[in-house]
Every structure is written in structure tokens, then in C-alpha cells.
User: Which sequence fits this backbone?
């Protein structure tokens, strides 16, 4: 992604943003307040992290077969994300993304939601290269609006834990013309 | 049904040798007609597909066609002629006019992996058929042979006896003809299958991709159009006509439901309700009352199974999971569904509550599909409770709780007894539990196993393994996990068809799917098994299985099961995928290469028994 072409930094003049972008930005701001970073850090089990990068040519599902989460932490954060998605008057999803411990160039979508909306997730990926806008959010704590894919808007917003560390980010995503059938598979 | 491949050393076929005859008389040099049994696929240059040829064996000189009523007889008819125009005709001497002939041109797919041609897609043709070699649309340089798949439909009221069948060819190589005799037995194949062959798919996006003309010609939203529903119904019909069923899962791993798979919902909490049934009823009414199949040879029947849109996010919002609102939304909507189905009289279909999601897709914290971590079982118990609460105890509507199981199946069979009652099992792991099918069936559960279609690069007979294994194991059915994805360019750059048993017919002017050689071979095997199962009235099923297994591949019935490995006593999250592979090696080795004529030998056995029945 060419960062310069993708980013609209929050705080831009209101006239430059349409109502969708404004609404998503506000939802993302709320997400930074409401999503509990300590809980987020407990979602992915140590086993799942351990296997995430393991490969075995005789066992091609090795990493995904060992993927597991803490039920209660996942559920609590997911419910918060569902509520955040409902802050806007159009279909939107709030997705949780966590950096992969020990792999600063990788990121893992940890919770997705029912509209199957994300501008970043290649369907089925357990982890992926860290997109530049996400790296910026994790490093600076700024909210960033991304409109790289035509018709899509994502606002990325940092998630903090009780120590004040940025431990992840929320992508609040919408598609101006929703596809009722995408990812129904 | 039978295509007898007479081999001099075959005692089992010798008894029919005096009854049936074939004459293949090339009348002019350079042009000929050849008939081949279904398991020997022709190539476009006058030879056979290499994997279908047994070492040292030549194509049969005598093809014998014997079949039971209410079934099909099939063979490949091969036109060999010089370059240029030709005309192919078929005549069946049937004064009653009851027997029917379906002819299909076999498309030769070029596989990028092997740089070879395999026939698979079957393009319906009208007879007499006029074309030229090389076939213009298949574009094969130096093509000298064109194959046709011939289906002879023998209706249940056909008169037993012998029917002459003649093919004629006119080409620049001169005329040629071929005469076969078709023997129709008195035996009638039951309409009900002993093994349910399921053909699975996901959503409807693939229909829009595979039918660009239909989509372009549709005014408005294609996904709400009659054109879409006609196509969906055509898929159900093609599998039904070929002794199978069709499933379309209508939701994704995050809980997103395709609108045509569910009634529209409105409201929240106590107020959540079904707003309308418009799309659902347009999609399903004719499938659930059977009228979608009125014009088929098998007649109108409601589809026996269908996925419901129920998932953790539908009809109740997952926001309320664990709270009173979840139960209220779930129970109110599912109760309304039951009422709608009951009022419509849709009582012959099993409506499946099924969870396909996996936690690796990050929508939910538990695996609905293929549970490995036993803690996830608690969700099944809770959904079972909710379903029971939603349904009147005396409902005539058949709701079932389906679970697709692998790692943890042994535990789940016990832990979820009375909760789950439709089990779709990993074939590899089920092979460790020979007592499981009977145990499940005795308590009223339905049990299937799953895998995927064999690619065209495997011997043609390979696909018969799946219904046969289901019958040998005593399970009710088999699921091909994906059967409608032929790839980006199946016509000239074919990936092998490991996820497809039908093809989009649009490029041939067909508004719907066209079948494949593999689907037809599977159908014929399923018919044979239905006939064999009918014989269980006079011979014990176990005895029939013991006798059938060696005919297929020289195996013993016990060899179709693997020993339960020691690690199976430990929790499944302590195993690995390689452990499982090693523990299924014995059957994998036994079935690594299925002889081309494997099913032929089983068929001969079945037809012999059927002929002996009073």
C-alpha cells in the first residue's frame, strides 16, 4: 500500500469528510475508550501463538488446527465490538487486530463480525503482513482513516491496556455499497 | 445395470456370454465407431486415458449391456473419423417406445499439470448429431476421435428382454456402424437410495460468477431474481436426477446470512420477528413440496435435507449470548419457522441446524465444525436446549441437529447423544470406529462421512469408492464437500475437478449445470447399490458386504477399517494431523490406486444376484 495515497488523518477539516467517515471516526474514537486492552491480550492462547508460524509439509493445517482462544475474553470484547459497530446508522463492523508477539511485521485479526467487513483481511488468513497504516496506529496512537479500496472506509483506532501501552487496534469498517453475498462461504 | 467387459478368464461374466453380443463393423477404412465401458475413458486421439488402462489390457472387443429397470445403462461411444464433417445417428429398436436415449458430447479438458486431455463435462446433444473433427469449440489440434456418453434410461415399466441398439456414422472416411444388444432384466431398482450422495456448496456468489450472461440479462438485483432461483433449482435437479442431493450453505464464518437463504428479520429482543418470507419461499417452496422435480424421471419428491440459516449470529444476535435476550430471539424466530413449515406441509424434509464456523476464521470463540477442543461441546448442548425449547414436542416438522465431526467424534458420539442426531464424519477418523455406524443408527441418528470428488486424473472408477465404502461401513450417506467449483477455466486450463462434479452450461446454451462423466459413473454405482440393498431381504447384509469387497479391489471387508490408534484414548487436542494420517495409512494404501474395472466386478456380482432373484 502506498501510504500517502491511503491515509486521511483524523482531525482533518470537517468539510473534507462525508457523513460516513465522520460517523466511523466517532465510532473508532469510542472504540479506543471502550475496548479493554488487557482483555484483548488474553484472547489468543499461548498455544495458538506458538503454533501460528509453525509449518509442516505433512500437516498443512498445523497452525489453524491449533488455533484457540480464551472464551470469556473473546466474548466480552466481541460484545463491545458489536456495540461499537451499531454506533453508526449503516452496516459496519468493528474488528480487533493484534500484533503478533515476536513478529513486529505481522498482524492477526482476532475478532471479526457479522457483516464480514474489512478492508485488510484476505479471507482465511491466520496472520498477515502488517499494513503500513496499522503500523502507524500502533506506533503513534493516532486514528487513521483508510479509503484504499474504492467504496470502502476503515478507521483504525488504537487499543490500550491498563499500563497505557498500545496493544492492538480496532478497524471500524464499512462499504458504501454493501455486498450481501461477499464471504457467505 | 451393467456394461459387461468380457474377459476370457472371467468366469463371472461367462454365463452371459451366449446371451449378449456386440458387432463392431467398420465399413470403410478411416472411419469407425467404438463402444467402451464407462470406466475406460477415451482420449481425443483414438486411445484411452492412461490411468484407466490396466497394464497389458486392451479395450474390450465385446461390450455387453445389461441393466435393471428404473435405472440407466451407460457407455462411451467413440467416433473415429478423418478430419472434416461427420454425422452420428442412434437407433434403439424398442417398439414400446419406453426406453430413452440421452446423448452427450464429452468435453476433453486439458490439464495444465499433466498436459493431457481427460473427458469429463458432458454437453447434451440432439441426435442425429452433426459436427466436424477436430471439434470446433474444443480446439484440439490433430483430434481424431470424439467421444459421446450414452445414457439409456430403462423405465420401471419397460418390458424385460433384449433390445437391439444401432449407431451409424457418416464421414469423409465413409459410413460405419455399430450394433449392440441391450438386455433389460426384470429386476427394478428401488427409487430410494441406500446411500445418500450429497453434493455440497456454499452461498450463491459462484452462480453469479459462472453465469455472466444470465446475470447481465437480469434487470435489477440478480440475487433476488427468478433467474437465480431457476439456476438454484436446476442444480438441485441435476443432482437429484443423478441419484444425489444438493446442499447450499447460506451463511459465512462470521454469521453473515445470504438474504435468499432466510426469512427477513426485524426488531430486537422481545420484538425480534420474521418480517417476511418472500425470498425464502421463492427459493425453497418448490424444493420443499417437490414440484421443482415434477419433470424429472424420478418424479416429484421434496428434497430430503436442507441447511437452515441458523448460526450463532442468526436468528439471535450474538450480542445477547448468555443473556435472556438470546434465548428469546432464538426461540421466537425458530418457533415461527416451525409454524411456517408446518402450515406449508413441509414435513418430509430434514431441516438442519448446523454450525459451520471455525474459530480460525475469528468470528466466534468456539468451533462449530470439527470440534477439537472438548470445551466447545458446551455450545452444542446449549443450542440443543434452545432448539428443543423452540419446537413443539409433537411437531411433524423434522428439525435435526447436524454436526460435522472429526477429531473428537468418539467423545461427541457419547457426550452429545440425544443432542446431535445427524453426524457428518471424517472418513479417515471414522475408519477407527467400526461399531459406531450401527450404534448411531440404532439410536435413530443419521450418519454420513465426507471427503471430496476425485480429480479426473485418477482412474474413472475411483469415484465409486465413496458410495461403496458408505455401504460397506453401514453409514447412510456421503458428502462431497464442494462440487460446483470447476475453476477459472475448466475448458482449456483444467485444475482437475477436485471440487466439481458439474459444470456451468452457459457456454453451450444450457441455462443450468451440465453433468460430468464422474457424476454419471457415481450415479450408476449408487443405482447398483440400491438394487443390491434390495437383495438384503433374501441374503444377510453382512454376507453381501463380505462378498462384494473383494470384487472391488481384492480386499477383505475388515480391511476397510483401521485399528483404533492408542493416541485416540487421549484428548484430541493432544493429537496431531500427522498422527491421524499415520493411523489411516492402511486403508489409504489399500485404496491408493483403484483398479479401472473395480466397479465392473461389483456390478457383475449385483446383476448376477438380481438375475437369480425370483
Assistant:
Amino acid at each position: 500500500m502506498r501510504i500517502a495515497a491511503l491515509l486521511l488523518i483524523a482531525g482533518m477539516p470537517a468539510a473534507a469528510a462525508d457523513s460516513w467517515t465522520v460517523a466511523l471516526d466517532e465510532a473508532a474514537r469510542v472504540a479506543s475508550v471502550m475496548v479493554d486492552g488487557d482483555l484483548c491480550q488474553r484472547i489468543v492462547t499461548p498455544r495458538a501463538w506458538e503454533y501460528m508460524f509453525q509449518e509442516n509439509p505433512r500437516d498443512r493445517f498445523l497452525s489453524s488446527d491449533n488455533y484457540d482462544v480464551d472464551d470469556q475474553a473473546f466474548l466480552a470484547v466481541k460484545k463491545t465490538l458489536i456495540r461499537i459497530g451499531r454506533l453508526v446508522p449503516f452496516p459496519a463492523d468493528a474488528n480487533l487486530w493484534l500484533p503478533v508477539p515476536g513478529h513486529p511485521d505481522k498482524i492477526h485479526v482476532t475478532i471479526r463480525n457479522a457483516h464480514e467487513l474489512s478492508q485488510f483481511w484476505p479471507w482465511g488468513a491466520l496472520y498477515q503482513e502488517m499494513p503500513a497504516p496499522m503500523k502507524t496506529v500502533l506506533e503513534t496512537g493516532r486514528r487513521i482513516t483508510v479509503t484504499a479500496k474504492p467504496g470502502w472506509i476503515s478507521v483504525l483506532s488504537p487499543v490500550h491496556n491498563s499500563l497505557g501501552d498500545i496493544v492492538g487496534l480496532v478497524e471500524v469498517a464499512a462499504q458504501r455499497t454493501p455486498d450481501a453475498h461477499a464471504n457467505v462461504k | 445395470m451393467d456394461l459387461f467387459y468380457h474377459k476370457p478368464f472371467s468366469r463371472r461374466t461367462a454365463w452371459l456370454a451366449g446371451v449378449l453380443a456386440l458387432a463392431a463393423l467398420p465399413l470403410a477404412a478411416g472411419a469407425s465407431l467404438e463402444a467402451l465401458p464407462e470406466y475406460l475413458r477415451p482420449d481425443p486421439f483414438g486411445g484411452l486415458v492412461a490411468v484407466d488402462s490396466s497394464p497389458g489390457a486392451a479395450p474390450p472387443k465385446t461390450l455387453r449391456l445389461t441393466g435393471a429397470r428404473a435405472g440407466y445403462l451407460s457407455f462411451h461411444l467413440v467416433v473415429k473419423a478423418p478430419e472434416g464433417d461427420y454425422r452420428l445417428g442412434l437407433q434403439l429398436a424398442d417398439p414400446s417406445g419406453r426406453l430413452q436415449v440421452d446423448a452427450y458430447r464429452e468435453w476433453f479438458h486439458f490439464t495444465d499439470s499433466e498436459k493431457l486431455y481427460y473427458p469429463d463435462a458432458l454437453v447434451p446433444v440432439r441426435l442425429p448429431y452433426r459436427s466436424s473433427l477436430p471439434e470446433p469449440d474444443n480446439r484440439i489440434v490433430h483430434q481424431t476421435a470424439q467421444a459421446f456418453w450414452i445414457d439409456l434410461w430403462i423405465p420401471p415399466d419397460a418390458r424385460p428382454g433384449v433390445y437391439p441398439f444401432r449407431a451409424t456414422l457418416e464421414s469423409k472416411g465413409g459410413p460405419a456402424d455399430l450394433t449392440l444388444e441391450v438386455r433389460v432384466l426384470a429386476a427394478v431398482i428401488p427409487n430410494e437410495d441406500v446411500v445418500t450422495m450429497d453434493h455440497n456448496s456454499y452461498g450463491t456468489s459462484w452462480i453469479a460468477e459462472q453465469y455472466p450472461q444470465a446475470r447481465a440479462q437480469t434487470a435489477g438485483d440478480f440475487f433476488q431474481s427468478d433467474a437465480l432461483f431457476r439456476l438454484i433449482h436446476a442444480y438441485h435437479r441435476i443432482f437429484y436426477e443423478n441419484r444425489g442431493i444438493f446442499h447450499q450453505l447460506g451463511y459465512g464464518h462470521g454469521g453473515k446470512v445470504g438474504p435468499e437463504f432466510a426469512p427477513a428479520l426485524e426488531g430486537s429482543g422481545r420484538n425480534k420477528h420474521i418480517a417476511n418470507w418472500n425470498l425464502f419461499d421463492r427459493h425453497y417452496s418448490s424444493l420443499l413440496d417437490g414440484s421443482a422435480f415434477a419433470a424429472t424421471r424420478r418424479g416429484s419428491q421434496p428434497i430430503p435435507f436442507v441447511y437452515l440459516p441458523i448460526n450463532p449470529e442468526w436468528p439471535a444476535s450474538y450480542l445477547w449470548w448468555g443473556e435472556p435476550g438470546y434465548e428469546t430471539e432464538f426461540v421466537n424466530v425458530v418457533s415461527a419457522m416451525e409454524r411456517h413449515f408446518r402450515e406449508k406441509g413441509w414435513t418430509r424434509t430434514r431441516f438442519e441446524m448446523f454450525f459451520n464456523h471455525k474459530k480460525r476464521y475469528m468470528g466466534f470463540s468456539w468451533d462449530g465444525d470439527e470440534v477439537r477442543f472438548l470445551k466447545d461441546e458446551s455450545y452444542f448442548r446449549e443450542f440443543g436446549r434452545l432448539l428443543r425449547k423452540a419446537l413443539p414436542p409433537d411437531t411433524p416438522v423434522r428439525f435435526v441437529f447436524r454436526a460435522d465431526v472429526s477429531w473428537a467424534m468418539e467423545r461427541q458420539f457419547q457426550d452429545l447423544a440425544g443432542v446431535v442426531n445427524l453426524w457428518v464424519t471424517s472418513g479417515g477418523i471414522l475408519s477407527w470406529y467400526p461399531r459406531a455406524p450401527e450404534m448411531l443408527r440404532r439410536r435413530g441418528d443419521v450418519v454420513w462421512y465426507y471427503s471430496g470428488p476425485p480429480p479426473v486424473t485418477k482412474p474413472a472408477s475411483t469415484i465409486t469408492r465413496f458410495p461403496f465404502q458408505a455401504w460397506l461401513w453401514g453409514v447412510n450417506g456421503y458428502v462431497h464437500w464442494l462440487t460446483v467449483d470447476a475453476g477459472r477455466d475448466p475448458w482449456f486450463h483444467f485444475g482437475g475437478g477436485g471440487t466439481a462434479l458439474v459444470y456451468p452450461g452457459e457456454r453451450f446454451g444450457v441455462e443450468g449445470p451440465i453433468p460430468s462423466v464422474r457424476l454419471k459413473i457415481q450415479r450408476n454405482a449408487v443405482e447398483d447399490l440400491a438394487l443390491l440393498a434390495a437383495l438384503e431381504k433374501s441374503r444377510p447384509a453382512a454376507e453381501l458386504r463380505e462378498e462384494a469387497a473383494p470384487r472391488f479391489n481384492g480386499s477383505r471387508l475388515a480391511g476397510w477399517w483401521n485399528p483404533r490408534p492408542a493416541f485416540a484414548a487421549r484428548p484430541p487436542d493432544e493429537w496431531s494431523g500427522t498422527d491421524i494420517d499415520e493411523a489411516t495409512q492402511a486403508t489409504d494404501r489399500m485404496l491408493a490406486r483403484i483398479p479401472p474395472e473395480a466397479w465392473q466386478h461389483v456390478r457383475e456380482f449385483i446383476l448376477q444376484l438380481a438375475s437369480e432373484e425370483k
Summary: Chain B touches chain A through 40 residues (CB under 8 Å). Confidence is low (pLDDT under 50) at residues 1-28 of chain B. Residues 29 and 296 of chain B are 42 Å apart (CA to CA). Residues 2-188 of chain B form a domain with the Immunoglobulin-like fold (CATH 2.60.40.10).
